[in-house]
Amino acid sequence: MSNRTFTMIKPDAMKKGYAGKILDQILQSGFRIVALKQLHLSTAQAGAFYAVHKERPFYGELVEFMSSGVIIAAILEKENAVSDFRKLIGATDPSKADEGTIRKLYASSVGENAVHGSDSDENALIEGAFFFSGLEQY
Ligand code: GDP
């Protein structure tokens, strides 16, 4: 099992000013920041990142949303990073997320759900490499 995962603080949470609180919760939960940057994805970049969801009915909405404002992208490190981070962020739909999870606290809907978290070690590597070169990872 790998010890790294990839996350984004999505445009909804950035616009509402939750970035500091979310990063604090991530650090307090024992994750170390390996790489971090703020950027505004173009629709082409968001489309490429979410290409795996191309056939899903919400793909267009997802790409539009993820390119609607600034995001923070980060690689995180901790033992069992992927599964522990998925537990920390909670269910995709915030109304179904456990109390105290990041999505329960800061997300408003299944689409605008505050944070991304990789769903496998393999995807964590691919997603991290989409945003960061080896030289940018510490
Ligand atoms: P995740 O792994 O928990 O992020 O969930 P998924 O891999 O199933 O979906 C990826 C992302 O697509 C989610 O985090 C949401 O931002 C978005 N998404 C999922 N389902 C829906 C939906 O029904 N409508 C919209 N607009 N977006 C969705």
Which percent bin holds the helix content? Answer: 25-40%
- CATH fold name, please? Alpha-Beta Plaits
Q: Say which molecules are bound, naming each kind only once.
A: guanosine-5'-diphosphate
Biggest sheet details: 4 strands, antiparallel
Order of helices and strands: EHHEHHEHHEH
- From the spread of the alpha carbons, the general shape counts as globular
Assign the CATH superfamily: Nucleoside diphosphate kinase-like domain
User: Low-confidence parts lasting 5 or more residues at pLDDT below 50?
Assistant: none
Mean pLDDT: 97
CATH architecture: 2-Layer Sandwich
Strand content of the residues, in percent?
Answer: 15-25%
Task: Provide the structure class.
Answer: alpha+beta
Task: Name the descriptors.
138 residues; alpha+beta; Alpha-Beta Plaits
Describe this structure in words.
By secondary structure, the protein is an alpha+beta fold. The protein is built from seven helices and four strands, in the order βααβααβααβα. It has a four-stranded antiparallel β-sheet. It is globular. Guanosine-5'-diphosphate binds next to α4.
In short:
The chain is of the alpha+beta class and 138 residues long. The chain is 40% helix and 17% strand.
Layout of strands and helices, then pairs:
Blueprint: E1 4-9, H1 11-15, H2 19-28, E2 32-39, H3 43-49, H4 59-66, E3 71-77, H5 81-89, H6 102-106, E4 115-117, H7 121-131
Antiparallel strand pairs: 1-3, 1-4, 2-3
Helix pairs in contact: 3-4
Bound molecules: guanosine-5'-diphosphate.
